[in-house]
Amino acid sequence: MARPSEPSRVGRDGARGRLLKQENFVPMSLEPARLQPMANAIRALSMDAVEAANSGHPGMPMGMADVATVLFTGHLKFDPTAPDWADRDRFILSAGHGSMLIYSLLYLTGYAAPTIDDIRNFRKLGSPCAGHPENFLLDGVECTTGPLGQGLAMAVGMAMAERHLNAVYGDDLVDHRTWVIAGDGCLMEGINHEAIGLAGHLKLGRLNVLWDDNRITIDGATDLSSSEDIKARYIATGWHVTECDGHDFADIERALQEAKADPRPSLVACRTLIGKGAPNKQGTSGVHGAALGGAEVAAARETLGWTAEPFVIPSEILADWRLAGEPGRAAHGAWAGRLEASEKKGDFTSQMAPIGSLVGPAIAGYIDDLARNPKTVATRKASEMALGPLTAAIPQLVGGSADLTGSNNTKTPSTLPMTAEDYSGRYVYYGIREFGMAAAMNGMALHGGIVPYGGTFLIFSDYCRNAIRLSALQQTGVVYVMTHDSIGLGEDGPTHQPVEHVMSLRLIPNLNVYRPADVIETAECWALALTTPETPSVLCLTRQNLPQLRGKGDENWSQANNRSAQGGYRLREATAARKVVIVATGSEVELAMTCADELEAQGIGADVVSMPCAELFDAQPEAYKADVLPTDALIVSIEAGSTLGWERYTGRSGINIGIDTFGASAPAEDLFAHFGFTAEAIVPQILNKLNA
Amino acid sequence: MARPSEPSRVGRDGARGRLLKQENFVPMSLEPARLQPMANAIRALSMDAVEAANSGHPGMPMGMADVATVLFTGHLKFDPTAPDWADRDRFILSAGHGSMLIYSLLYLTGYAAPTIDDIRNFRKLGSPCAGHPENFLLDGVECTTGPLGQGLAMAVGMAMAERHLNAVYGDDLVDHRTWVIAGDGCLMEGINHEAIGLAGHLKLGRLNVLWDDNRITIDGATDLSSSEDIKARYIATGWHVTECDGHDFADIERALQEAKADPRPSLVACRTLIGKGAPNKQGTSGVHGAALGGAEVAAARETLGWTAEPFVIPSEILADWRLAGEPGRAAHGAWAGRLEASEKKGDFTSQMAPIGSLVGPAIAGYIDDLARNPKTVATRKASEMALGPLTAAIPQLVGGSADLTGSNNTKTPSTLPMTAEDYSGRYVYYGIREFGMAAAMNGMALHGGIVPYGGTFLIFSDYCRNAIRLSALQQTGVVYVMTHDSIGLGEDGPTHQPVEHVMSLRLIPNLNVYRPADVIETAECWALALTTPETPSVLCLTRQNLPQLRGKGDENWSQANNRSAQGGYRLREATAARKVVIVATGSEVELAMTCADELEAQGIGADVVSMPCAELFDAQPEAYKADVLPTDALIVSIEAGSTLGWERYTGRSGINIGIDTFGASAPAEDLFAHFGFTAEAIVPQILNKLNA
To answer: Which run of H or of E encompasses A214?
Structure first.
């Protein structure tokens, strides 16, 4: 029987330069003769599953099987019976196309899922073994990967979360590592530069990246498109780099030990043969993303000495694999005992719990004050004001900005800098790294214990768009603070003026896009954003000042009467017979009010509907929506952005006031006039339509 | 008087290892005493303009004024009287927020614009001196910059274009350099990694990047967020690196000479003081993005010894500046003589001219054949088929893919690889660098003489979205070949299935988004994409096979009867009395036809409208649109993507068949059934609505 064989030992966590108790976790140490068939089990399952699906990527799992086997048996701290144990090591398969690697590992080590039938149904409808690993389908899949580079970048966020919580709660409760398997694509994508720059700067020594250095991409050899000295680049960015023969168990073991010992984040270049075991195709791009075919599978079985039927793992090999999680299970037990005995148990438990119930009470008094003492401020400033009480009351909130702190207004007195010298801070200077920031926030949210928010200009949502999408797909509660939300940013001009961005973000499923109209709506939107832990939010905020439009009836505010929760609501009711409903968002609600005043002055009844969140409005009952946007009135939309999409509310016969061209460089008030955002320009259009 | 003082000389172009004739261009060489007031003229104009606008970034122009002065007087080959001279050096201000630097330089060296009044109106409506430099507002602004990192990445494309055209036309006609001024932000953004990786791999020795190494970002010192050894990183990526004191003219000169001499692309780290000259604010983030204020401007004038009134340049300094373009003007004259004498004159002239007239004839025969011999192929394959005759006939077409050549079907027999050993090839293996690819394509298009197209999966339009936006803003004719355009990609699952992308790209102004329904529409869309040189295109193409729906009437095809040119057209006309119009795109047009068949079988007249390009349809006369989508019929849209936006055509009472959630992993046909894309699911909805 395999047994944990290493004695208790004391290791050195160089990143902090202090001694760490490692007796909590004593992994197995198996001889190579035992490891080889275990690794081949991964190869067999991977090629069989890809073959059955006639779709998928066998090359990576087969190439990295040996490295993964050493990692899972000798280093990774995990408890298959408790995949959500807070102090587990995180394992990220950044090269998500090699998904059969992680499915194999989860099955072999005895997670409740996937079952062998799930693996048989790889890439078929309903199987949790999807084409790429999805965090919402399988425990043990820490994050959704496939969009290249983002797994590693999310791992950076997880490693940040670990260091932060460690700084707050100590080694007894938080003391784990983050492990990544990444491919050439993950290293070639631009986000890699941002992610490793952040990790190097923050000295995330507990982050270890195992690079599948197989020198093959889909188009062919990596030297078709790259001449980079990757190791030198990582060293230049503050990383420790080592390498190993990815098919020599002892050498892999040495490299992982070295990675753990170094105080810097580590890159382990694992020299591998893609598709190792498939004798005629290994080492070529032909094995990257296509099934091997029956003949080659047969040849591979011969090469590997694998005689079991497809999807069958010999019992002695499976038994060895099932032992791999035992050390972690024991460590989990010890950890649970320490938690029970800890004076920080209550705080730690709250830290890891949802924050929803904290939000309303944290902010109610602030809104009460606003109701009584109106404020004219930019909504970016209103956001900062709301963040004051929120960050004071909710320790999970960790803020930051991609080098626009003073513009995004994301920093509060409660959020001190998180640095390599003091990870306990709750504010991250992300640098000019929007994509890296967004992915790191996803990682922190997925780690648990942290609710991240981060700022940039709304236009630069383009730079991190796929990470926002992954926030939504992965069902995280990340909050994006996107300021300078229209031509209202003024002089910086069209490169910096989001025209299409608000609408284009609304298109992303499971993402709430908020565009509040004043200081109270901004607070309400923050309150909503922090109470949807499975739906990320984008707050689109102005650079320019906006008058307070709300207040009457908000004096005894609570989440229960958060008017923004309906997504859109009647802010002003027609006094004359209603003929027009003007629906607007953000900075244009004030303009809608002015237009309505002018119409009413001419005896034309006009409602104004503020719609801070179209997604929440769409989710209201039909009767509510029909009441707010009746079919017997002319519906007019005003939003300083794309009109496409507004027809959902205005129909083919309504009026859509917006901008369908790029903006221009000028002071904001000149631009609003130039692009027709004045009552003088809009009211006549409404009158013409009514008279048509 | 300043005079060109260097003798003719013979330099060595190490990238190719051969001798280059340099006598064509002999720049000035002025002593530092003459250069200093010239540099201070930039400082004065920059601080005055920012002060007048009370908006802008004075720090960068003041910090880089000395470097820019050496570059423009001693190295840059340009003719202010002919900004579009094909063989000029390209100068890119990648740190576009420092726009007053380039406006100052263009004014001082005597370009027709900007005038001093334009500079007075910096950042005001109508001034060509916009907040960030816009290529469509000023000659001499080679590309629009501001979105950080992209200027440098576009410069890579320009340098590729230069080497390609040099390989084809020789040193006599194409022999210029690309110069970049970049800031810390340009180097920190992820796209930097992609861009310099491509440049290093392709050994673009004529690309020189002058890095404004001022160690300040908006949030503060660069070490707040970065610990990277930038020089080591560039060296690791195949670059030559040198450095200089950015305020020592002789040292700058030495570094630029060194950069020109090295066969690799060069990074020159110019150690500067941000805002140099403003005695109390220089060297701090306070001078980065805000006006200095009257007192500090006065102090700066004192420090610089600058006594002229605001916006006035003393005549002797202006006279020196006006000489800077003389060597380039002379070189331009010599070049024109060589062109006139060249046997390649005709070819070169065609190469640099618009390609529109070549397109129809290149592809007409191919479409004729299809009309007579229908083909069932995926539209990505149809794209490859169309590219065959197009790339054979049009030498300007340069293709590529971000490591998905075999999936995007972007390579043809006419497009051989472009490599460091042979730049004459017309196919770029961009590597796993979507953003870098898109920016490089923008650079190639802006350089002229090349019409670039490049492929990736449609989902990864997210990774390069802001570069697509810059294609549109800059009015380039770049073509994006985006395959695997819906859940039809199947097994790869939701991370790889574009749901919101087609609609979200439609939101970008001046971008044509094509989603052809069959092999003929695909060819038509290509023909359209290549005849809009000021509007970029995205072709959204299927992975899966589609039947040919067109052909009758297409036998004598020409651009004049390109039916896709109307954006949407009646593909099938109701035979019974029309009650329904089904409008669909791409792979769903086939389904629309089936639904129409079933409706007609029940006596319900149904048109089918194919809408390969909504933007072109929107641009049609109202009468045409009303005829195609009449208000007295039920309008039904079918597109395997977001429904939001389709209400423009279907109104509040139509039916929108689409997907407003993420996809799933399964074979394509299972997914289409699962998500309701079958006649069995759709026809009853139509009947219910008609009977409601």
So the answer is: none
Cβ distance B236 to A224 less than 8 Å, yes or no, reads: no
pLDDT at residue A429, as a whole number: 98
Q: Is the CB of residue B215 less than 8 Å away from at least one CB of chain A?
A: no
> How confident is the prediction for chain A on average, in pLDDT?
95
Contacts of B645 in chain A (CB under 8 A): 507, 644-645, 647
First to last CA, chain B: 87
Nearest to A432 among B189, B198, B662 (CB): B189
**ipTM confidence score:** 0.96
- Residue A217 pLDDT: 85
**What fold, for B567-691?**
Rossmann fold (3.40.50)
pLDDT at res. B24: 65
- A78 min Cα distance to partner chain B (Å): 26
Residue B21 pLDDT > 70 = no
CA distance A688 to A526: 39
Residue B156: name the closest of B97, B209, B111 by CA.
B209
- Residue with tokens 């998928």, as numbered in its chain: A56
- Which residues in chain A are contacts of B628 at CB distance < 8 A? none
Kindly tell me if the per-residue pLDDT of B309 is higher than 90.
yes
Give the span between the Cα atoms of B174 and B163, in whole angstroms: 8
Fold classified for B356-563: Rossmann fold (3.40.50)
Pick the CATH number of B10-20+32-339 from 2.30.30.140, 3.40.50.300, 3.40.50.970, 3.30.420.10: 3.40.50.970
Amino acid B289: pLDDT: 87
A509 contacts chain B (CB < 8 A): yes
Contact criterion met (CB < 8 Å) for A237 and B233: yes
A-chain CB neighbours of B509 within 8 Å are 499-500, 660-662
**Which residues fall within 8 angstroms of residue B13, CB to CB, at 6 or more apart?**
B19, B20, B205, B206, B263
Mean pLDDT of chain B: 95
B568 — pLDDT class (breaks 50, 70, 90):
very high
Give the contacts of A214 (CB within 8 A, at least 6 positions apart).
Answer: A59, A60, A63, A183, A184, A271, A272, A273, A274, A283
Does the structure show a pLDDT above 90 at A288?
A: no
Domain A35-339 sits in CATH at: 3.40.50.970
- Give me the DSSP letters along B285-314: GGGTSS---HHHHHHHHHHHT--SPTT---
DSSP string, A393-462: H-TTEEEEESS-HHHHT---TT-PBP-SS-TT--EEE--S-HHHHHHHHHHHHHHSS-EEEEEEEGGGGG
Q: Which of B531, B535, B538 is nearest to B358 (CA)?
A: B531
SS3 B15: coil
Please give the Cα distance from B420 to B180 (Å, whole number).
Answer: 21
User: Which residue type sits at A454?
Assistant: G
Topology (CATH level 3) of domain A566-691: Rossmann fold (3.40.50)
Q: Domain locations in chain A?
A: 35-339, 356-563, 566-691
Is A490 near chain B, with CB under 8 Å? yes
Q: pLDDT tens digit string along B177-198? A: 999 999 999 999 999 999 999 9
